[in-house]
Specification:
Dihydrodipicolinate Reductase, domain 2, four-stranded mixed beta sheet, Rossmann fold, 438 residues, 2 domains, seven-stranded parallel beta sheet, 16 helices, alpha/beta
């Protein structure tokens, strides 16, 4: 990791490439366009509204993060992407039904100019969607190279200095790491042989890393989370991050569970069920895609609570997750949680949570932050896994010899301390030893 003096300055336009121009992507793009015009506020975005403490509490130094460290301005962002449907971003946003028509109409001209490139797609990996805007090729190697060409063309045609890619596509069927994922040589040979263990999201990640473009994964797919692409990212000094945006129900778990653990309250069971009706819900109606999501969501509590270290409190935890496709709700997801906890002497208590959330509204500011922070990491030559961005993900990727950190408060501390480190500021430990040793 490099210090402030070695971070390349922000210059020119930053291209934002989004595989999947559906509800999340169009909500993000339309929101940025509306914020540029002064019609809305970037609520939910740490880069735009968050502050960072510097030095001692008595010094009162709490600048906005965007003023503390050099990040691209929203006016410098240029948007593009791929989708299996041919609608432009205005049409796609209207179809998604997340944002009000008045807001979309205020940025209609700009949204209409953003049209999807043909996507790499196969029903072998997402079974319940079909669309006409799909690439063809003799093998997966050919398809991956078409994506690389798209990246180069977009950069040239839009006059971009740098690019970032953030996966906003659907959840693919569950795939486990295998031999073809072990080295870049085997992976590239697998592309040429159209190995079934190489999913479309992996081809996007491969294309991005080969072109020097940071890649963040907003779905629970393996994508860049395989040794071959991890090694390639380190070699090419390209940041990668993921996976699966931490938005509704899992966000609540990473807020509540650390509190239970901090107070040494027992946890006997946590039952979670969801209803949602957007494209993500439709995709997750397929059991193979749901398994990918389920693995991502189930990992959170075990890593936070550490039942091996606290067997009396969490050793018998029963954790169940359900997701149900319910079209009338559209993007307005509802998550119910029943939490059985125990207190002094083992006496039982219950907590009920009913979170009526807007999935894409919660995800859109995460996409913005990831775009800006991944570009920062690239300019600071921080290649490979960006664990400091675990704050944004349900299933954070980390080095093979580590376990992922899920506690959102620890994640935020790590993120802010990384920013302080990059600017050569003192890290905040909250020890306050000056009070005792004056």
């Amino acid at each position: 990791m490099n210090k402030d003096k070695n971070i390349k300055p922000v210059q020119g336009k930053l291209g934002v490439l989004l595989p999947g121009l559906g509800a999340v992507s169009t909500t993000f793009i339309a929101g940025v366009l509306a914020i540029r015009k002064g019609d809305a506020k970037p609520i939910g975005s740490l880069t735009q509204m968050g502050r960072i403490r510097l030095g001692k509490r008595t010094e009162g130094k709490n600048p906005l993060i965007k003023d503390f460290i050099d990040l691209p301005k929203l006016d410098d962002l240029v948007f593009g992407g791929w989708d299996i449907f041919e609608e432009n971003c205005y049409e796609a946003a209207m179809k998604a039904g997340v944002l009000e028509k008045d807001l979309l109409n205020s940025v209609k001209d700009e949204l209409e100019q953003i049209k999807p490139m043909k996507a790499v797609f196969s029903n072998d990996y997402i079974k319940l969607l079909n669309g006409p805007n799909v690439k063809t090729g003799e093998n997966k190697w050919h398809l991956a190279n078409q994506l690389r060409e798209d990246i180069r063309n977009f950069k040239k045609e839009n006059g971009c200095e740098r690019l970032v890619m953030v996966w906003c596509g659907s959840t693919e069927v569950y795939i486990e790491k295998s031999d073809v994922h072990s080295t870049i040589e085997k992976f590239e040979e697998g592309l040429k042989n159209s190995d079934p263990n190489i999913a479309p999201s992996m081809m996007y990640a491969y294309a991005a890393i080969c072109e020097g473009v940071p890649f963040a994964n907003g779905a629970p797919n393996l994508s860049a989370d395989i040794p071959a692409l991890d090694d390639l990212a380190k070699k090419n000094v390209v940041p990668v991050a993921g996976k699966d945006y931490k938005t509704g129900q899992t966000l609540m778990k990473t807020i509540l569970a650390p509190g239970f653990k901090a107070r040494m309250l027992g946890l006997d069971g946590w039952f979670s069920t969801n209803i949602l009706g957007n494209r993500d819900g439709e995709v997750l109606d397929d059991p193979a895609s749901f398994k990918t999501k389920e693995v991502s969501k189930l990992s959170v509590l075990e890593q936070i609570l550490q039942p091996d270290l606290y067997p009396d409190l969490y050793g018998k935890l029963y954790h169940k997750v359900r997701i149900n496709y319910y079209p009338p709700r559209g993007d307005n997801k509802e998550g119910w949680d029943n939490i059985d906890i125990s207190g002094w002497l083992g006496y039982p208590m219950q907590i009920k949570v009913d979170f009526l959330c807007r999935d894409s509204i919660l995800a859109a500011p995460l996409v913005l932050d990831l775009v800006l922070f991944m570009d920062l990491a690239s300019r600071a030559e921080m290649g490979g896994i960006q664990e400091w961005l675990s704050f944004y993900f349900k299933s954070p990727v980390c080095a093979p010899n580590l376990y992922p950190e899920h506690d959102i408060f620890i994640q935020l501390m790590k993120l802010k301390n990384t920013l302080r480190f990059l600017k050569d500021e003192d890290l905040i430990t909250h020890l306050g030893l000056d009070y005792y040793y004056e």
